[in-house]
Amino acid sequence: xxxxEVVARAADPQHGxxxxxxxxxxxxxxxxxxxxxAEHAVEVRRREKPLELPDPRLTxxxxxxxxxxxxxxxxxxxxxxxxxxx
Length: 86
Description:
By secondary structure, this protein is mainly α. It contains 3 helices and no strands. It has a domain at 4-48. Helix 1 (4-11) packs across helix 2.
């Protein structure tokens, strides 16, 4: 009834059910399994969701600002470095 990854998490000797429950209690076991199944479902949906990247097209004002900055940097580099320019 549960995904194999959820069952593996429950059976893990270091972090699974054996480290969380002192006495065999099916209701408590099911609570943990349901919680872990919900977490697993969220993780699966997160992995399946396509990565949304920002629009790579730049607007004219942004293009112009970038070009202006590159021109200024180029002129500064052509002038060289001095103690006053650093």
